[in-house]
Amino acid sequence: MATESKEQKFYSALRDVFVGAKVEGKGGFINLMNIKSKYYEKIEKFLREDIEKALEKYPSFRDELFDKLYSFFSRYFTESGSIYFNSTPFHSNIYEKVYTDDRDVILFWKTHMLYYVKTDRIFRSLPVEFDGLKFYFDATEIENKKANEKRSLVFELKEVKEDGTIVFSIKYSEKGTKTKQEEILKALKGKGIKITEDQLERAFKIFEKQSEVDFFINKNAKAFLHEQFKLWVYQYVWDGAKEWTADRINQLQILKEIAFKIIDFISQFEDELLKIWNKPKFVKNSNYVITLDRIAEKDGGYSVIEKILNHENIKEQIKEWQELGIVDESFKVENVFEKDLTGKKLSNKYKHLPIDTKYFKDLELEILGLFDDLDNSLDGWLIKSENYQALNTILPKFREKVQTIYIDPPYNTGSDEFIYSDRFRSSSWLTMMENRLSLARELMKSDGVIFVSIANNQNYYKESYKLGIILENLFEKRFADLVWKRRSASGSYVISDITEIHEYIFVWGLQNSKIFTNILSPTKLRKYVNKDQHGIFKWHDLVIHQYTKEQRPNLFYGVVYNFKEDRLDFKKNTEEIDPTQEVVIYPSEDGESVFAMTKKSMEEVYARGVIGVIKERDKYRIMIKKYLHDAEGMINGDPLKSVLDDNELPYKIGGTSEATKELKNLLGVTFDTAKPTNLIKLLIYVSSRKKDLILDFFAGSGTTAHAVMKLNKEDGGKRKFILVEMADYFETVIIPRIKKIAYSFNWEEGKPKDVDGIGIFFKYYELEQYEETLANCKYEDGDLFTIPRRDPYQEYVFMKDEKMLKALEIDYENNKVKVDLSKLYSNIDIAETLSNLTGKWIKKIRKDEVEFEDGTVINTKDLDYKLIKPLIWWE
Prior knowledge:
Layout: H1 2-19, H2 28-54, H3 62-73, H4 91-98, H5 103-111, E1 114-121, E2 126-130, E3 133-138, E4 153-160, E5 166-172, H6 181-190, H7 197-208, E6 212-218, H8 221-238, H9 246-278, E7 283-291, H10 292-296, H11 301-309, H12 314-324, E8 337-340, E9 343-346, E10 354-356, H13 361-368, H14 374-377, E11 380-384, H15 387-398, E12 402-407, H16 426-443, E13 444-454, H17 460-474, E14 477-485, E15 493-495, E16 498-500, E17 502-509, E18 524-529, E19 538-541, E20 583-587, E21 594-598, H18 599-607, E22 611-616, E23 619-624, E24 643-644, H19 656-667, H20 677-685, E25 693-696, H21 703-715, E26 720-725, H22 729-743, E27 747-748, E28 751-752, E29 761-767, H23 770-776, E30 808-811, E31 816-819, H24 830-838, E32 842-846, E33 849-852, E34 857-859, H25 865-872
Parallel strand pairs: 3-5, 11-26, 11-29, 12-13, 12-25, 14-24, 25-26
Antiparallel strand pairs: 1-6, 2-3, 4-5, 7-10, 7-29, 8-9, 13-17, 14-17, 15-16, 18-19, 18-23, 20-21, 22-23, 27-28, 30-31, 32-33, 33-34
Helix pairs in contact: 1-2, 1-3, 2-9, 2-23, 5-16, 8-9, 15-16, 15-24, 16-17, 20-21, 21-22
């Protein structure tokens, strides 16, 4: 009995390690668990035969063999079925010996071999009883989350059984749907069941307390488990042994051979997950947003606008504009155009109306056809996706092309406000960040800069230290840790009786990275007015722009320049000075006196590009130009300081209250973690050129895109943005935000204060997700160990499986392979999919074909299956 007990204990543990915990529901992960379970039944049969054969010579070793196999493999059981360093009690000793003496760094080495997939709950159907009430929660229909989005559960009343048991079905919320408690209570009351709202909520909470687990994929499960076995053998078998006989060595060799056979087979499934995780993903449901002015500036653009305005779906577009607050009920299509002496043109009021091609799919190709170089004409890409999948998929297209990266990742705060679980255990959070930052590095240009916000909360030192380890491992140059004052003392975190009102932004780069421009402190300048306002002088805090001579040769800088050769006598109480006449003024370097120049002198220095006069309504301003860099490229201005002080910056960046107010006025929503647009604009401003690419893969509410657009508006830049976000507010916040600020940058209570926006042309789309791939993969219960002269445990068991080949159909008559991607997903954007896959930027999209930047033309109707093979079948 003892032998059988230990043997069964081992096989039971092996099943747990191989398959994971029993899970109910639907989705790709559930399919995978079922597949692994079927394969395990076959491998157990072969394994039993091999073990029996190995023990023929050493039957007395049977008990010890199973005991030791159980002791080793049971340590790697995780409910999610992931293979990683989990519960070995001597892990600290091992990892201190092998890797480091620093306990914090141990966390990195525990998880550096993993890909973090998601945090999710493993639900099982569950009976609940209390207060004389009976509940049953049916989890068989719940569909797993596609990625690591935070989504609440929705409970639906399914039935009330004869014994009074209340049965609920459960699903994840879609686009904000909620449990209809009032309707449930009313229905139960109608069936004679007395239950309060508190009791109902208590039942829901009991069900929701089921296991929350982290899902990982091991980057090299075989090497990891081999290493772990060797360490384990040393710790438990070799260490302290005094005598070794030939039989003992042979017995341990049997132990190793059996363990390695199991490892080799288990690893195949992990390797298959690895291939699916890292396979490029299909682009789905793509659309474009373009303002009317960007259409009108192209040849034939006015004709296309006419077609849009006369389209049957223009009513849907107008309804969207009204919901966004861009136009009101009085809007009329005929007012989009106006006539003057030059003829028909776009009304200034409506030139920045954003057109979304989702309403005009039959006109989309005609709109895109206006542009000779499509991708280069875009201002940005918005990608709805889990961010690792997005970064990995777009890597060929954007490798070494991103100049500035800004991210505001989730933290271990225990807060439920962020869309990520936000409760990662330290090692999980570290893995999640390392996976994504390593891809981000590959996207950066050789002189690119990355900014990483890190919240100053109770876990700051823990998280910042770990984040510092990652950044130091991945990037060569540390610039600084910027300090941002996020709020006033009221409402701040209070730690150890000290009020903390700041957060940090870590700034890193590559070997050649640099901050291109530096900040000039605001200079007090005299601002004078026309004689009809009595010539009164007033102080004015000037907003300063900063560019090199090459970037902006004609920009006016508000920096005092002392022209001694042009100085005239000092004049006090000057009245009724008209700057367009004989005398002009400018301030002295001490800011207290006013010097005057004759108009002739002024014209001479103006011709040299030193000063200028700018008229603002009825006021004039003298701008005296000083470049940041002299002829030798030396800095003339003050550098950006690590403490972001509004009093020393060219404009106020503000704190969280400004960010909250901005979003409230723009969209009527609140994001506690949002950063003010001016903060992100400043970071982009000091780290990018005018045509650079900016990336944010924790996009949140879309502040980075807003900042790029605002900066482009101010300096005439053509910076592009890439934003990645997986939450529902991709559609409900980010896209509406960009559409609204394209029309106007100034909003109050959801209404535009003016029409001073910026023309925009961007693309938004979804990516296939890992869970969707799993759900679409077809794995048969195939034959095992059928290839002669091959180690059966190392045989690739998925060679005969279909995976996603249902997208292909062999035309035997014409000896061709037909591709039908609609069998996988509807609305696949094959042009963008191929662009990401090949790394080639799109030049033109025509009906049934796409032309890339290198002149390659691909027929998208009769697609060569070899082009998409990496997407549907992996070896």
